[in-house]
Amino acid sequence: MRTLLSSLVVLLAALPAQELRLGIGHADAVLVGRDLGKTAHDEQVDLHRIQVLRSVRGADGQSTVTVLDWPNLAMHNRPVLRQSRLYCLQDASAAAARLGLPAGNGPYFKLVGWAGSCPLVGADLDRDPVVAFAALLAAADAGARPSDTAAALARMASTGKGPLAVEATRCLAERGDLRAALQPVQWSQLVARASGEVDQIDHKIALAELAAEQRVVGLLDTLAVSLGPVRDAEYARVVGRIGKLLEGENATLVLQQRLQQLRDPGDRAAVLLAIGASNTDSALQLLLRLDATDTADAAVVAALREHRAPSAREAAARRK
């Protein structure tokens, strides 16, 4: 059965990708390493010698590994000389054999292609959040209790900042077994963070998607309250589309009630954009009524442009 999250992925505009969690999940080995240097095998292939500073999984007992790189190919990630990074690696022994590389210089790997899956790490590996996140996911794959993993991810999602907070949130959204292990107080914290004012809009959107995947009761009402204080257009679109998925035609009523509470034009514009993005019949009727009574309201015109109905686009075009 198609999940709500997969529907959201189709509907929501693409955000800058950070997919460290996917890189870790698809890697044969995850390690903290320092690039000691590279040599050119030929015009197509470079060989990077990576010192293993810590094995998270899949590289136990190795002091160095060799990472193959194809410099003429466009890739998300490449080793960087003299930098310590988290490496998410896939087995490249077959490629090494085809190239005739000596077995004694192995094991041979290549970097996974997921964006953001080769981040820098700090000098103190015991305190580095990237290393801790990788270790958490590795432990989960090794059989750690879902409740422990879920609790740790919820703390990162509800109190953290930066890409790792988004990664933790998306991990929970993608794993129904982990969401099921969360307690009501943890859900309250996550929803509060989703509706609160945060500087990191992609984190806010990820939290809203997570709560929508769980079908949190009253979620649209909670998210609607943040429209106005938060005027980001992409966030408004997300609220509108979540509203349609969770409330259907009733989403317009919820958002209209929020609209009636606001007087500032910028606040109203955010709610109107969410109404347009819901793409429901009731939203269309409301926007057409508003357009008929105030032909100079640019926010209504923007909301009509957001709605995908031909009549909405035609009405917006007349006001251009």
Structure description:
The chain is of the alpha+beta class and 320 residues long. The chain has 3 domains: 20-111, OB fold (Dihydrolipoamide Acetyltransferase, E2P), CATH 2.40.50; 147-216; 218-320, no CATH class. It has helices spanning 4-11, 20-25, 93-99, 129-141, 146-159, 163-174, 176-180, 184-195, 201-213, 219-226, 233-247, 250-260, 265-278, 281-293, 298-306, 310-318; strands at residues 29-40, 46-57, 64-69, 84-91, 108-111. A hairpin with a 5-residue loop joins strand 1 and strand 2 (46-57). Helix 5 (146-159) runs parallel beside helix 8 (184-195), helix 8 crosses helix 9 and helix 10 packs parallel to helix 12. It is elongated and about 80 Å long.
Sheet/helix structural class: alpha+beta
Low-confidence parts: 1-17
User: How many domains would you count in the coordinates?
Assistant: 3
Number of helices: 16
* Main sheet: strand order: 1-2-3-5-4
Q: What are the secondary-structure elements, in order, as H or E? A: HHEEEEHEHHHHHHHHHHHHH
Q: Tell me what portion of residues adopts beta-strand conformation.
A: 5-15%
Alpha-carbon distance between the two ends: 42 Å
User: Mean of the pLDDT scores?
Assistant: 90
For the biggest sheet, the summary is:
5 strands, mixed, barrel
